[in-house]
Amino acid sequence: MKDSPVNSFLKDFISIEKSNSTAIYIQIAQQIINAIQRGYLVEGTSLPGTRIFSTLLHINRNTVVAVYDELASQGWVEIIANKGTFVLVPEQKTANIKASFTPIGDVNNYSKTTGFPFQSAFHLSSTQEISEAKYVLNDGLPDLKLHPIHEFSKWYGASMKRKTLISKWNQTSKTKYSVFENQLCNYLNATRGFHIQPNNLISTRSTEMSLYIISQLIIRPKDIVLVGNLSNYASNMIFQQAGANIKTIPVDEHGLDVDFIKNNFEKGEIRCVYICANRDYPTTVSLSPERRLKLLQLASLYKFAIIEDDFDFDFQFDGSAMLPMASSDANGLVIYLGKLGQSLFPSFQIGFVVAPENLILEAKNYLQMLDSQGDLIQEQMLSELIYEGEIHRLLKKNILVYKKRRDYLCQMLTQYFNEKIKWIKPSGGLAIWLQFQTNISLVQLAEEAEKNDLFLPKTILYQDKKTCAIRFGFGHLNEDEIEIVIKKLKQAYDRIKIL
């Protein structure tokens, strides 16, 4: 039996890569399935016994047992006691449905368009752009290369093994706040000066999801929403989807011009003001303390909501970050949006909302409809990372790296552009607002840069009669890459100046 054709075939056909992260028994099972699908092993073929198979491949007998169990669980083999293991060909569970009025050649082609009308949304058109360039700029994203892969694997594996997770998945009712909600609440109270309880808090998949839920709750068609005169394209799309009438407000070196609101709008006319008080998007300027107070007072007088998006609070390099407006809001006017875990992989990052209890209750009802299960493993892991201080440790470690990159970027800008670009070094955040002193075509700049292997997406380019600027995200670039990118940007700049 050891020298049978089947044994010889399996010995030659199956190869094992011990360096592969896939378990050996899975590697073998996949190759046997492949052999069955190709017809090399036909239905009814008797596979070698576990002892013989282990000798053929020089593997442990228990591994062979695991291989056969895996194949049996998928229906590829049948294990008969005292007789052996035999190949099966799983029955096709579905049949092709052929409509008599459809041409035979078109039966298996899926339609590209619907057979019914629907309303498409122009403002939801994707902003994603594809480029083959080696170097790419963004609007200020963290560097995934700084994230410790092995530690994440350990943390995630430990969370998966928690027996309490099973009871949470099977839970049909909720009578108290979870460990995660309490830990997140404590973390925000400690880092952002809040005095909140879990009933003032909801966590979501992202800040975009947070803003979408809030906009659905508080905005009705034609409601006036005020944003900065450049603002965030993603938030604007969300407001437009909710039917808002977006009005822009001037932004200067002190942030949003609150007096403009008072002089141009009346009480009851405004539904909400969207603001990034800590660092304006895209200009990075902070709203001054005086204007923060004025805005809170005006919101109380005019009865509008303030949506405070604090997307990069954690990345503070110089001094201490100014506490959120929401931390000094006693009248329930501010809805605070933020992120947690930006020093972690994107799948472990979350968004959250801090607001009065009645709004949070409605938001949770909405979230229940969109994402009833949530991610319990993610919550378990984040709870432990907060409790053990790992979130704080990773953040402090990465801040030193990002600060060094910010300073090096400023050095390279001075060296290569001198007076051609104006910027103010931000006290934090992962982007710098670069303003060209001479008005140039940023579209042409992007085209020339891409010819030189540098991609500038349109979402970071800002140009009108008064503005010619780039939101330059540097967080994902190391110092060598920063110098290369600035050189390429300067070469593109010089070329369009000649044209």
User: How far apart, in Å, are the first and last alpha carbons?
Assistant: 79 Å
Radius of gyration (Å): 29 Å
Overall geometry comes to globular
What portion of residues is helical?
Answer: 40-55%
Percentage beta strand: 5-15%
What is the overall pLDDT average?
88
Given helix and strand content, the structural type is: alpha/beta
Model description:
This protein has 16 helices and 18 strands. It is an alpha/beta fold and 499 residues long. It has a seven-stranded mixed beta sheet, with helices on both faces. Helix 8 (207-218) runs parallel beside helix 9 and helix 15 (442-451) packs across helix 16. The longest helix is centred in the C-terminal third of the chain and has 28 residues, at 390-417. The radius of gyration is 29 Å and the shape is globular.
Structure, briefly:
By secondary structure, the chain is an alpha/beta fold. 40% of the residues lie in helices and 15% in strands.
List the keywords.
alpha/beta; 15% strand; seven-stranded mixed β-sheet; 18 strands
Helices and strands, with pairings:
Layout: H1 5-13, H2 24-37, E1 46-47, H3 50-57, H4 61-73, E2 77-80, E3 84-87, E4 135-136, H5 149-160, H6 164-169, H7 179-192, E5 201-204, H8 207-218, E6 224-228, H9 233-241, E7 245-249, E8 251-252, E9 255-256, H10 258-264, E10 270-275, H11 289-302, E11 305-310, E12 334-340, E13 350-354, H12 357-370, H13 376-387, H14 390-417, E14 421-422, E15 431-436, H15 442-451, E16 454-455, E17 461-463, E18 468-473, H16 479-498
Parallel strand pairs: 4-16, 6-7, 6-10, 10-11, 11-12
Antiparallel strand pairs: 1-3, 2-3, 5-13, 8-9, 12-13, 14-15, 15-18, 17-18
